[in-house]
TrEMBL record:
Signal peptide as annotated in the record: 1-21
InterPro entries on file: NTF2-like_dom_sf
UniProt KW keywords: Signal
Listed name of the protein: SnoaL-like domain-containing protein
Keyword check for Signal: yes
């Protein structure tokens, strides 16, 4: 019994001294920008989409860019061609009234690697099938290469809201 008590005391001492002996550290990995050329690019993409100008919008993406959304099965990745086809279909199904920035975008420039633009929008849509007006919040995270081209896009929005599913 004494051996167990001594062992418990030693373990308690080690845990306490370790906890108090460690300094709390904080690590950084880059800078957050509220103005940046990649934020400007993100804005240009959305505004081109708003005007049905797919050539301009997709010109900001690298040819091997990948696309995914929260609505897709985990691991599902789409190519630039597939994303353009989907967006054209979306524009056939919905009249775009406006695509308004909900809050200012941020560019996270990482020390180790490239950066990402985080943007928040509200798309004001009219569904063509029933003329229903829809306000669809959408959040994009776009990764950029060193040349300012978008290499990856992840979108958070509700298919159920848009399509009434």
């Amino acid at each position: 019994m004494k051996t167990k008590t001594n062992l418990l005391l030693v373990l308690t001492f080690v845990c306490i001294t370790t906890a108090f002996g460690q300094k709390e550290t904080s690590q950084t990995n880059g800078t957050i920008h509220n103005t940046h050329k990649n934020i400007d690019t993100e804005y240009k993409v959305i505004k081109a989409m708003e005007q049905n100008d797919f050539d301009t919008a997709f010109g900001y993406y690298r040819d091997d860019a990948t696309f995914a959304s929260v609505n897709d099965e985990p691991g599902t990745i789409f190519t630039k061609e597939q994303a353009e086809k989907y967006r054209k279909l979306f524009h056939q199904r919905f009249k775009i009234v406006s695509m308004e920035m909900k809050r200012p975008s941020l560019y996270l420039e990482f020390d180790k690697g490239n950066g990402e633009v985080f943007s928040w929008w509200v798309f004001h849509l009219i569904r063509q099938s029933d003329q229903k007006e829809i306000l669809m919040p959408i959040h994009f995270i776009n990764s950029f290469d060193e040349n300012g081209k978008i290499i990856n896009e992840f979108a958070y929005y509700s298919d159920a809201l848009a399509y009434g599913e």
